[in-house]
């Protein structure tokens, strides 16, 4: 589990801002004819020490992100306590410098107190704005983690959606072949076994080489041919140079299954599916010969689209005319680093 990063203010910010405030507080002294270099140094020293104290006090009193929630309002009793404590510390610093350096003439104490209150307010408000920004980032990261977990869970569900009707139909086909003592029954059993062995081996993988996907497809097509005979035709014209690209497992099987679901497949009206590569896409194309009474819900294509969106942040493309239906799948080449 990723450790939540604690709130932290850089020392460069603390010391840099404190030095800047010390310099700003001493600017009026530069234009005072009665001021000596010693007065400027002492004035800057008081401001610097006070600023650093206020920074660390407010950081210490700031509630931790994981411990408790801050009030929505910036102005509360903690600010009042900080201001009161700041006034006391400023008094101590002024008296301490007077005693240490034996200074008889300094700015009026009220000027130091006003400066202290102003510095206190600046540091307090800036620190709390930083903290609120930190909380917002943490909530955003938590939402991202939750979103990623949800996407992962959804994706795992998507990978499991291999149509159970296919197994039912395959077993029915096998029963018919056994009943008529078809000599190809043994081959059918071996191909069915190969297909489900591939299923078990590949279901936990996000991507597999296209070469392996086509091997799975060969077993799947053999089972379909046993069922539909010459009523189903698949023409594979994929360039072998593309075989080392990757694809989510069972993508082609789901697309062909989708074609069979919506189109007539018969000896009188064979369903021909063309599989080929085009630029950076793998194309599955079929002639439209829709079945009557079958409504398209788009679940199958949406499944595939979500898998690609989850893995490579790309979507499939669908081209449809009155006679031809095409699905274009993005080629994945850098899957080893995906």
From TrEMBL:
The keyword Transit peptide does not apply. The keyword Membrane applies. GO terms for molecular function: phosphorelay sensor kinase activity. Residues 153-231 form the Signal transduction histidine kinase internal region domain. Signal peptide: none annotated. It comes from the Bacteria. The chain crosses the membrane at residues 12-28, 40-58, 79-98, 110-131. Keywords: Kinase, Membrane, Transferase, Transmembrane, Transmembrane helix. Pfam families: His_kinase. InterPro entries: Bact_2-comp_sensor_kinase, Sig_transdc_His_kin_internal. GO terms for cellular component: membrane. PANTHER family: SENSOR HISTIDINE KINASE YPDA (PTHR34220). This is Histidine kinase. It comes from Flavobacterium pectinovorum.
